[in-house]
Amino acid sequence: MPAPARPSNRGPAAAAENRAAILAAARTLFAEAGYRVPLSAIAKRAGVGQGVFYRHFGDRLTLADAVFAENFDRFEQFVATVPGPECFGALWRRLVAATLESGAFIDMVIDARTRRPGSQPEQRLRELVAEPLARAQAARLVDPGWTVDDVELLLHMVHGVAIAQPDRRRVPGAVQRALSLIDPRLADNH
Among 131, 18, 129, 40, which Cα is nearest to 84's? Predict the structure, then answer.
């Protein structure tokens, strides 16, 4: 009876697939368990060993940067397709949804700021919001006094409301209520 076939080590040929698997696993586990999910759990979910994991991503922040770079790419593509003043509102709803889906989004930005002042995620967020905010202000769709810093602060507030809820089912309603107290135009229910 022949011996069962053993999986072969494809070495560098599998590098792109391994990286994609790690990113997909990280995205899922960051959403499910938060930014501090064990890196070993991400490697296991991706089906790679720890050595393979660390060849691609030397630490948590490098991995988070890569995961969220993909998110920012999607946000930037969206902004490019919605050129009018309504872009800010639609982008805002997507940013809130990303924050609620994965509190890791804000945790990563906070960690990046602490460990790498002027980090790319924080700067990309600022650049992403600036033009749509200006267009919305020119059309009087949002408060003319808001700054990019204010929008970032609002996202931090959304995150705070979300993590303060002991019952995850109540998070969307609590966030919408908090946003409507700040400015009804920020809430989905206006």
Answer: 131
Average pLDDT on 161-176 reads 88
Q: Which amino acid is at 44?
A: K
- Side-chain half-sphere exposure of 124, counting CA atoms within 13 A: 21
Give the domain extent around 150: 60-186
pLDDT band, very low/low/confident/very high, at 109 (cuts 50, 70, 90): low
Q: Which two tokens stand for residue 183?
A: 């400015």
Radius of gyration, alpha carbons of the chain: 20
One domain for residues 163 and 74? yes
- DSSP assignment of 72-95 equals HHHHHHHHHH--STTHHHHHHHHH
d(CA 128, CA 134): 11
Task: Give me 187's structure tokens.
Answer: 């809430």
CA 142 to chain CA mean position, Å: 24
Q: 108 to each of 99, 104, 117, 129, how far by Cα in Å?
A: 11, 6, 13, 18
Confidence (pTM) = 0.73
In 11-169, which residue ranges form alpha helices assigned H by DSSP?
15-33, 39-46, 50-56, 60-81, 87-101, 104-115, 120-138, 148-164
- The total domain count for the chain is 2
Q: How far is residue 123 CA from its own chain's centroid?
A: 14
180 in the same domain as 152: yes
In this structure, the number of other CB atoms found within 10 A of the CB of residue 122 comes to: 17
